[in-house]
């Protein structure tokens, strides 16, 4: 063993080097995607390119390209990353509230904080991108609409629970989900313009849907 | 008079030439703007540039630049042109209906035709552009929001008339306008994806706001 050349690392050393390399790759990936979601929410996913991100974060274009390969993969990874951040900011914390009206209110409250703060520089990621991609078939559009469907299901589940448990009067859940998401998206736009009265309008829309039986 | 050189036109001929030139300029302007509103509704106003339009309609870039001078003037002229087309398609025809509930329903019906047909290749012009410009202060954002305010006022006026004349029960008009516009914008996005159930959801939202006293 003492004769082993030092130019070849041991298996343990090799594993440690691989771990470090993986960690470095993961960190770079996160740095790139953190910037990509801001660019996408401000300028749109079309502006999420290797060159733009390389300039913004001071990395080589080739380095970013190695991590994501194609512009479309980079755009899809950006959508996934935004989705994870959205879940962490909105759906995650709401899980602390019991199903039904309380979780619904928690989801809406967290959504408003998400749009008001905002989590992404340009406000709601989906609102910022769906109007561009809605006319363009392909994986990017599909991923954005998958995100919308998940959100519809998340709030729809709580409306249904509130009706089934007798917390609120019978309503058309599909219509309620459509209306709530519509006013949230409208509020996101109003907030970008500094019109905070839209938040109160969201709450009053929700109140109108949550009438006791 | 018979001695007048034919190389100099008479005052009448000069006027006719000027008219023809003005007419040609106005026609070119219309051709350019007709294409510009489609590009803006599909790709966004950022893509409305002299080069892009020159390629699309087979004109010289310099010719278009002479007519509009700056990219921002071209974008503002595009918004005005879209506004005129919107008024012709939605607000104009609704004027045939008496004020109140009937005009409100006519406005919404024409708006849905406007988004369904669609008048612009990418659907509602405002929805397609507002999410990009809402984070960017300047004349383009101001013009888009002026358009939104006019639309809010148009439907708000009819809601107020319906309440004041006793056609419908008392409602918060500002909230109703916000909700109606929100579901229209959401329906526009749904229609781009081929989801026509959103049209029924718009009508049911409106029905919910137009209850008799």
Report on this model:
By secondary structure, the first copy, chain A, is mainly α. Chain A has nine helices and no strands. Chain A has a domain of 139 residues: Orthogonal Bundle (Tetracycline Repressor, domain 2). In chain A, helix 5 packs antiparallel against helix 7. The first copy, chain A, is elongated and about 75 Å long. Chain A starts with 10 loop residues before the first helix and ends with a helix.
Features:
Tetracycline Repressor, domain 2, elongated, homodimer, mainly alpha
Q: Which stretches of chain A are low in confidence, meaning pLDDT under 50 for 5 or more residues running?
A: none
CATH topology of the domain at 71-209 in chain A: Tetracycline Repressor, domain 2
Largest interface: A-B, 32 and 32 residues
CATH-assigned homologous superfamily of the domain at 71-209 in chain A = Tetracycline Repressor, domain 2
Determine the fraction of residues in helical runs of chain A and give it as a percent range.
over 70%
Helices, strands, pairings?
2 copies of one chain form a homodimer.
Chain A: H1 11-42, H2 50-57, H3 61-68, H4 71-94, H5 101-116, H6 125-133, H7 139-164, H8 173-192, H9 197-209
Helix pairs in contact in A: 1-2, 1-4, 1-6, 2-3, 4-5, 4-7, 5-7, 5-8, 6-7, 7-8, 8-9
